[in-house]
Request: fold
Amino acid sequence: MSKKHPHSTHMERNVLVLSFTQDMSLTDKSTSCHTWHFLQADNLETASDIVQRYNCFVAIAVIDPVKQTALLNAVERLSSRYCNLLWLAISADSSTLAGNLSYCFTDYFMDYHHLPIDWQRLDHSLGHLYGMAQMRRLAQKEQQDLKPSSLIFGRSQSMKKLQQDLIKVASTDETLLIGGETGTGKGMCAQYIHSLSQRSKGPFVTVNCGALPPTLVHSELFGHEKGAFTGAAKQYIGKIERANGGTLFLDEIGDLPLEQQINLLHFLEAQTIERVGGNKPIKVDCRVIFATHVNLEHAVRDGLFREDLYYRINIIQLEIPSLRDHKKDIPLLANDFLENFSPTNQCLSFSQQALNKMIDYHWPGNIRELKNRIQRAIIMNDTGEINEADLGIKQTPQPSSSGNHEMPEQELVKHRSDIDSDSLVSAIKDNNYNISAAAKELNISRTTFYRLLKKCNIQL
Reply:
């Protein structure tokens, strides 16, 4: 085998050579074929490691009549694990192929050579296989780009109904409020609506209201002029203005500070903004989609959300089902994530036990948690079949009794006794006024955090 590093020149392409016989290797012969760098393996594990480490798309199987069955078994297993790996066979005896290998030749191999090697012909064949592998990868990528998300097109009735509703609201330009638990895919639904709308060629701009410090919210949304405040060294175009001609997605709108809610309401009514430090109204034409995981009606009642803004954004409302409410779609979702996140050429699958575990699990983090579990499983797996241990699901948590609804008063009282004013203020400051992060630090929901702020008479 050539001693050069597999990436020694940008022109070389790596080729796996699987040979169970030392007498029939390509050692020291690769110098006759400068375009390719041959990486020798004499067992299944080494071959698999080479494919993953060196991103091989083409492989050669050196056929030995004595160990032919074992080698074909290895080729079959590698082919099932790495779908895009294309194979070429080399044999010392053409009669061996005709007698024992011809029945499965087209199942495994795209071409066949025999010893002694015609290096010019081999170079041509490898180039042909490499080109086919690249075309196959490109076609698969295009299919994935065009394929609708399994989140939208699930088999359950609730998700089919959601799909129909998303298609309907995509045809209008009215504001939309999307509700649902954290991790259910509200952002993905917003993107899907945008892709079907008449604004699909325009920008899709996302703002997570819960992640913006109160002192920067106005500037981030509306922009600012140069010199508007200390540190404003140049003009900044805000997120609303960037969405002109497209769609603005305001995620976690329930976390928007009250003082900024009136500015947002003005924009929705007038379709104009003014940058901080500016005095010229700027017309902005965009559709606005809102999302929240909290009950805005309760937030209005508790004085945490403006009533006039709530009724302005609640023209059309959709609720995204939690994953536990459409468990029938879990295998479809899981396989979709597995296909999208698996390394190039690697074909992984789930064991039945792993699928059963995922169906039995409660998924408090919904689609986002499922996605993260599968990404973890891909990293931890080393057999090609993902099992329960790879997923890392230890137990099935019990569903929350409150869900998206108001926390029972006795539970709030318990939190009030455990968390005093100093704790709330400290959490707010420690997290740079990020309410989501502060609530997480205290192990309470954002809704509970706001209600505790109100009960403690703390003003942000």
